[in-house]
Amino acid sequence: MKIKIKKEEILAIILIIFAAISRLLPHPANFAPIAAVGIFSAFVFKNNYLKFIVPMVAMLISDALIGFYTPFVMISVYGSFAIAVLLGNYLKRHASILNGAGVALLSSIEFFVVTNLAVFLFTPQYDKSWQGLINCYFYAIPFFRNTILGDLFYTGVIFGLYFGIKYIFALYKKSKMISRTN
Q: Does residue 170 fall inside a structural domain?
């Protein structure tokens, strides 16, 4: 299988690497770029393998450096980021700033629901009761706030940089074409 990468995808890979590295910098818990990277990958890449592989590899590399955790919780985290890629596919078909914010917010919500359910089910932190489940979600609310803020921030930054750089290159290309005709 041969994978052909276009200039646009090289730009996307650079932005994704930037976002993944930012996960390694000091930051508030759950204020991370990976969901935004998943959304962006789906938006930019035509190759379905790249859409999923790029954010997963970025996550795996940063997890290898930060440290791994409970396997089933880790699976839920990676699964949530795969869902972010699927949400990015929706955004690609319905591109707008409002939809981008909505997709980022929906990604935050599904991450909160899925990963906290996994924490409840697969760690000994909470009693396996309705009260334990309620406590699990209640104590995760501060992390949820950071997830929302991080997803909105990084989605805005990644897409903003991407379209800003594309716009600058288009202006540069246009100015070169105009100077050739003079």
A: no
Task: Provide the pLDDT for residue 182.
Answer: 60
How many CB atoms lie under 10 A from the CB of residue 149?
Answer: 14
Return d(Cα 11, Cα 179) in angstroms, integer.
Answer: 26
Residue 122 pLDDT more than 80? yes
Kindly write down the DSSP assignment for every residue of 51-106, as one continuous string: HHHHHHHHHHHHHHHH----HHHHHHHHHHHHHHHHHHHHHHHT--HHHHHHHHHH
- The pTM of this model reads 0.85
> Cα–Cα distance between 114 and 83 in angstroms, integer?
10
Of the candidates 23, 33, 9, the one whose C-alpha atom is nearest the C-alpha of residue 158 is 33
Q: Specify the amino acid at residue 89.
A: N
Residue 98's identity, in one-letter code, is L
Domain count, the chain: 1
> Is the Cβ–Cβ distance between 56 and 16 less than 8 Å?
no
Q: Domain for residue 177, yes or no?
A: no
Q: Which residue bears the tokens 């990644």? A: 158
